[in-house]
Specification:
Elements (H helix, E strand, L loop, with lengths): L6 E3 L4 E7 L2 E3 L2 E3 L1 E4 L4 E5 L4 H19 L7 H17 L1 H9 L4
Parallel strand pairs: 2-6
Antiparallel strand pairs: 1-2, 3-4, 5-6
Length: 105
């Protein structure tokens, strides 16, 4: 099983999502990666759905930090941030609903 999200929108861009059995970088298998010049995020389907969600969230932060020109590239800290972001959304569905429904004053 895999996610069926075909694209995500960040602050300034739309990113296509590509699912692959193996995602490779420098001859090493990765859970995912972001190709900045192509606005493409690759996610490995050889991991659980939970891990695919975490990977997509992780790569989303890479994309956003690049857009904001924040030079942050600590993989362990990005993974922790991704997991915390997912947990926050899960623990605060009422806030998420308000944000989604908010149209401005």
């Amino acid at each position: 099983m895999q996610l069926n999200i075909k694209e995500i929108k960040t602050l300034f861009s739309v990113w296509k999502i590509k699912y692959q059995k193996k995602v490779m970088l420098d001859n090493k298998e990765k859970a995912g990666l972001v190709s900045f010049g192509k606005n493409l995020i690759k996610v490995s389907t050889s991991q659980s759905i939970k891990n695919q969600i975490e990977t997509l969230e992780h790569e989303k932060f890479h994309a956003i930090f690049e857009e904001l020109r924040i030079g942050f590239d600590d993989e362990k800290e990005l993974t922790a941030l991704s997991r915390a972001s997912i947990k926050f959304i899960q623990e605060n569905p009422e806030l998420v609903k308000i944000i989604l429904e908010y149209k401005g004053d």
